[in-house]
Amino acid sequence: MNSTTVTLFSLLLGAAITLGASAVKADLRVMSCEPQWAALAREIGGERIKVESATTARQDVHYIQARPSLIAKLRRADLLVCSGAELEIAWLPVLLRQASNGKVQPGAPGHLDVSQHVPMLGASKRIDRAEGDIHPYGNPHTQTDPRNVSRVAAALAERLQQLDPAGADYYRARHEDFSERWTKALERWERSAVALRGTQIITHHLAWVYMASWLGLEVVNHLEAKPGIPPTAAHLAKLLHSLDRHDVRAIVRATYQSERPSKWLSERSGIPAIVVPHCVGSTEGATDLFAMFDDMLSRLLEAAKS
Amino acid sequence: MSRGICSVRVWLALAALVACALPARAQPADAAPESRAGWANAFNPSISLILQGRYAHLSGDDGHRLLPGFSLGEETGRGPEGISLGESELDLSANVDDKLYGFFNVAFTQENGESQFEIEEAYLQTLALPWGFTLKGGQFLSAIGYQNDRHSHAWDFVDAPLAYEAFLNSHLLDPGVQLGWLAPTEIYIELGAEILRGDAFPAAGAARGGVGTVTSFVKLGGDVGVSHSWQAGLAYLTADARARESSGDNGSSLLFSGDSELIIVDFVWKWAPDGNYRDRNIIFQTEYLHRYEKGTLSVVDSATVTGRYHGTQDGLYAQAVYQFIPRWRVGVRYDQLFSDNDVRGLPETPLHRHGSSPRRVSTMLDFSNSEFSRFRLQYAHEAGGLSGGHAIFVQYIISLGSHGAHQF
Asked: How far apart are CA A287 and CA B201, in angstroms?
């Protein structure tokens, strides 16, 4: 038994080393926690980087398993880009501890925490779990305001230049090009969004504060009575009752959230329930960051008209 | 492991320590919006307290069970009948600096009206060694098998699998050093080895000058599409036992001295539609344990009789847990043990009753109001020479303080 085990282990070790040696490092490897930061890294990094996202638009980023495949990805990453502010607290700390990769640990240049580079909204005054799954450092769903995207783009360009000095000019040029296009798009979005100012909406999760603050939307209530705790029948009934006092135009949810609570409320109130892209890939139209905000606005404007 | 029975004074001192540490959490929370204090280490260290309690209705014996065909460690059995406070666990952890991470936890239990505490894990771990190496030192749960390095609050059932009770005294926890290497590959490949003191079951007496247990393991894992993921492992342990004590029949005790070897094969498969675990998911988990022991056995009663003992023992369990709607899960687990022992010439011990294949079927239903609270109902039926027939458990597990992250 002893000798067979030893043989088996040496075989596996041999196989692992061969595989390891064949995985030759070519480009700068970027791993993002959420798809929108992967998309942004592609805008800035272009051909010089290889980007992978740990999650997809169909997944609730609060509830990700620290899967072996993610550990293997993080082991080889040169730069990690995450929303931060405890959004990934249920899984990212485990990945970081198991990935044996000093380059991406918090504090290292290879660790970009988005929440450190944008003004945070919605930090709870009352830090008590009775309030649900709250985030004491502010609401981490920062990507729904395009002005935040440009702030992160600048931080990302800076990190890429630092980590890959040979490509500094390349990254700088791509960032300038992106900024120019983004500024133009931002003007376009803001012009068309004037009509939305003051529009009242209900959202599934407390995940749209940045979008609401950017567009001047008024979030009247949430389908979740407390953040992170699934909507209950009692809360929805109360919500339905309170709608008379408001002029709510849309019930907004992200694609990974169950459609049942919004559908229930929509059928009884006549208010349209809509999916709004919360990240790249979350709707058919949201093929890249520009398309994501185009789609967001067209869906909101459509609902507000009705 | 050493289980220190502590006085009320130590308890109070620890409580005071926690009380001093807790108010400190409030400060960064208030300051956060302005200072944008970053990661989990803003609470330095992160503190979480896990409380468990249960009600057990047991038919058969009072829980100090003897598994036919096996000699057991002390942390086995079904626990007390009726209402009891389970293990309360206090965890403190933080990144020490940019290169090190530290973890400490104590388990408080109450037995026969007396408070006891036990230092479970107390280790430091490197975060940034080159080439994918990780070094861990201190006292920690061994990385062998799948379930071994999970704390009891993270288990999917109230109790450990029978095989873990029989082969590892519920879990292998011993001071030592662990070296791991993660391959830079697309597929997850981790190789590791541990040298442990050898005080903990199946070793005893810190033999070989205090390096009585040596383990090695390999873990593989990956995804199949976006909805499926898996992990498989193989581990080998060799331990030197010196006068390892177990309960025998009719109040006698058994002392084993010799070599113990263990192989564990484990496989875990998880599924969630689109990889979104929030609403629905399935976890399937199975392990097979094979042990070979050779040495001398003393049966200590009014007189002591010593003789040769060889044992070949196997155990397996398979379990599936299905979260069918958010917050609600059902699970089923099957356990079985096999043994073939040579104990000729010794007076009757549990090891003589080999071949009776103890087995158990457990079913459970649990509800989690949030990630921080879980309530569980479990029913188990035992057969194959196990003294109990049925067991019903009602359990709560709650977590206070910082948000712990769980491994795959």
From this structure: 56
pLDDT the model gives residue B371: 87
Q: By the CB < 8 Å criterion, does A13 face chain B?
A: yes
Question: How far is the CA of B306 from the CAs of B251, B292, B301, B351, in angstroms?
Answer: 17, 19, 11, 14
Q: Indicate yes or no: CB of A258 within 8 angstroms of CB of B326.
A: yes
- Structural domain includes residue A131: yes
Q: How far is CA B302 from CA B74, B226, B242, B251, B252, in A?
A: 22, 63, 21, 10, 8
Reference A157, options A12, A24, A30; nearest CA is A30
Q: Decide if A11 is inside a domain.
A: no
**A36 shares a domain with A118:** yes
Residue B33 has pLDDT above 60, yes or no: no
| Domain count along chain B | 1
Q: Which residues contact B52 (CB under 8 A, 6 or more apart)?
A: B85, B86, B87, B88, B89, B152, B153, B395, B396, B397, B398
- Quick check: A166 pLDDT over 90? yes
In this structure, the answer to whether residues A52 and A182 fall within a common structural domain is: yes
Note down the domain range covering B268: 56-72+125-401
Q: Specify the CATH number for the domain of residue B180.
A: 2.40.160.10
For residue B319, is pLDDT > 70?
A: yes
Substitution target from B182, B219, B293 for chain A, most A beta carbons within 10 A: B182
Residue contact B132–A8, C-beta within 8 A: no
User: What is the distance in angstroms between the Cα of A305 and the nearest Cα belonging to chain B?
Assistant: 33
Q: Does A210 touch chain B (CB under 8 A)?
A: no
Same domain, A177 and A261: no
A107 touches chain B (CB under 8 A): yes
Range of the domain at A68: 26-188
Shortest Cα distance, chain B CAs vs residue A20, angstroms: 5
Contacts of A137 in chain B (CB under 8 A): 32-33, 36-38, 42
Do A58 and A142 reside in the same domain of the chain? yes
